[in-house]
Amino acid sequence: MGFVENMIKKSRLKSPWIVHFDCGSCNGCDIEVLACLTPMYDVERFGVVNTGNPKHADVLLVTGTVNHRNRHVLKQIYEQMPEPKAVVSIGACNLSGGVFKDSYNILNGAHTVIPVDVFVPGCPPKPEAIIDGVVTALNALAAKMGLGPAPGAALMPGDEDAPKAAAVG
Amino acid sequence: MLSILGALGGVILAPLAGGLLSGVDRRLTARLQSRMGPPLLQPFFDIFKLFGKAPQATNAWLVFSAYIYLLASAFALFIFFMGGDLLLLFFVLTIGAVFQVVGAICVPSPFSQIGAQRELMLMVAYEPILILVFVGFAMCTGSFSIADVFKLNTPLLLKMPLLFLALGYALTIKLRKSPFDFSASHHGHQELVRGVQTEYSGPFLALIEIGHWLDLVLILGLCALFWHTSVIGMVLLVAASLFTEILIDNITARLTWQWMVQKQSLLVGMGLALVNLLWLYVA
Ligand code: SF4
Questions:
Q1: Which fold has domain A16-167?
Q2: Number of structural domains in chain B
Q3: Best of A36, A53, A76, A144 to disrupt the B interface by mutation (most B CBs within 10 Å)?
Q4: In this complex, do A49 and B188 lie within 8 Å of one another by their Cβ atoms?
């Protein structure tokens, strides 16, 4: 079984299928995510396929401000993805709420709802940064399988002592 | 005995060929869209990854259908390699297709449900053409046996060129290539999310994918039968069919089912096939 197990571990890093969920972004981040799939960047080189189906996906890309309505959807999408999986949070809005931080109607970032592996800051981040985010997420996945060191920083600075809004709201 | 072992070996090797061909497909597609494209072995990485994912199924029928589809595809290929009966092969192939519909229809997801309806449309479109092509084989060789094809000493392509085109039609539909990819689509394309495959995930999706590879090999094998007299001819014919298939996949937009069933399949596909059959009958 050694060969099969090895191949599975290797293949996980070579075939990250993504599902992209927009929590209510201004579409700036979404456009940059989709730009990664164009011939200019062509993420299919790395085996990335945009599946649009959480049941097929390995990596969840979240953009936009998470609010009290769509956090249930976000959680559901996350739960529908079979293990092993990774989450990449993209854009200022999704990292911390961005310009809307601490508004009454939104949560301060996707990490208050689901465990996030990688944060990609920017408003919007460049496609290069998003691709880098997915690659870092793969490193996080590899670390979980014991194939290398974990990438640093899993929380936004200053968020360590912030209350988990989702638990309250 | 030897032929059974040979056919079994063929069935076991077929996924390798199918995966490689599908890698070629993805790469060619990428090149046609002026992209670099994934590595040639990408389909195998995908399959291994899928097998490593946590199994997750909505209900037992889904799992059952995935296995039956794979088994039916493998058995159809086995019949083909044994030089068996074309009609039997057709029925076994249909069982696989039907169980794909069953798997898609037994879950509440609307994407999957509509995908199943459309899959039935696909079957309505390609099965009559396929049967007519097999009738053409029978008229040329005097039997439905594949082994009898190899007793002829002129290539079938000369006698049934139009049936070959009609078979090409049926194959594009059966492989769900654009413009007929509306019950489920390939690569990064999305139609009804993933149509009939929406609810499958992890290892079960991998089974379906392998079944699809087997279908691809079988279908290209059927194409090869049209030039059975020389190996070079077979390879040429298969390569040409595959390339045309990929080219058409990339340059056409998706049709509605009305277009496919009424105009494309009935008029063009069946028309070509019937004209050729008449010609065979007269000649
Ligand atoms: S981070 Fe900027 S670009 Fe992205 S959704 Fe928020 S406002 Fe739009």
A1: Rossmann fold (3.40.50)
A2: 1
A3: A53
A4: yes
